[in-house]
Amino acid sequence: MQMLSLSIPYSNDLLVSTGQSKENLEQDLCVLLAVKLFELRRLSLGKAAQIGGMSKLRFMEELERMGIPVINLDDGQIEEELRDA
């Protein structure tokens, strides 16, 4: 599968204010994008982990660290799961 890339312009001020190297900042931004897209249910766990550059297990640990549930069901989905149990 062909991988595309995304370019986000930022100034050196961002590096200074975060205290990170260019590489670490860009990796963090990839992880944050993957987490948010997962949280919004736009990406599966596997795809989000891939964008974040980590294994599924490591991505799940990152979600836990950020307080984001790995399983995010709405009330209707919970009722359906309980009914089917």
Give the SSE map.
Blueprint: H1 12-18, H2 22-39, H3 45-52, H4 56-65, H5 75-84
Helix pairs in contact: 2-3, 3-4
The low-confidence runs, each spanning 5 or more residues with pLDDT under 50, are: none
The number of helical elements comes to 5
Largest sheet properties = none
Shape, per Cα inertia axes: elongated
How confident is the prediction overall: mean pLDDT?
90
Distance between the termini: 37 Å
The secondary-structure class comes to: mainly alpha
Report helical residue fraction: 55-70%
When the domains are counted, the total is 1
SSE order: HHHHH
Radius of gyration: 16 Å
Structure, described:
Pfam families: UPF0175. By secondary structure, this protein is mainly α. The protein has one domain (17-84). It is built from five helices and no strands. It is elongated and about 55 Å long. The N and C termini lie far apart (37 Å).
